[in-house]
Amino acid sequence: MPEQYSILICDDHAILLEGLKVCLQRTPGVGNVLLCTTMHNAMQLLDSGGHVDLCIVDLDLPDGSGIALIEHVKRVLPEVRTMVYTSHEEIWNINAIMRSEADGVVFKSCGVEELQMAVTNIARGDNYFCKRFQQLVRHIEMHIPDSCGHLTTTEHNVLQQLARGLRANEIARILNVSVNTINTHKAHLLSKFNATNTTELIIKAFVKGMVEFKLGQ
Known about the structure:
Layout: E1 5-10, H1 14-25, E2 30-36, H2 39-47, E3 54-57, E4 60-61, E5 64-65, H3 66-76, E6 81-86, H4 91-99, E7 104-107, H5 112-123, E8 128-129, H6 131-138, H7 153-163, H8 168-175, H9 179-192, H10 198-207
Parallel strand pairs: 1-2, 1-3, 3-6, 6-7, 7-8
Antiparallel strand pairs: 4-5
Helix pairs in contact: 2-3, 7-9, 8-9
């Protein structure tokens, strides 16, 4: 991540956007802050080649879902980090976030300092999930299968590296194996945790106390 990173915020509340811009511009490391009020405009900006290091999205947008925007970002610009910033705490939204590939979550009820901390950590490659999100996730712990507790040593090692935000090729270099081998272990982990993607896998592993990463205090 560059010393000065660029942020795109997509939210349909104009006053909130301006407040966030001022807040984030006071955060060390933050350079340019771009604002969009619709998913369409955000996609246009991203697809036009505008440089963005971190994309912050609300779940509820006038022309679509913040989850759909995150999926677009991860598909088109996988190097761009993503964070959900929302007031929606319904269980179906928590499940949607877990199944997305968001790198972090902060609720709008959180304070400015936590928002700034989350942005700093996510932008530099860590995960960050606020305390309230953790509490809500724990309510669905009962849906995590027992099979997740039966990991091989290699699966456990791969899980730890995934929790650090590393990609398959990076983990392959660390463990001195092929990328295909890492992808096979990752597939086994997804199956054992009944997870649809890496974000859901990591969150469930955290809930079970099997990984650690940056979290709200």
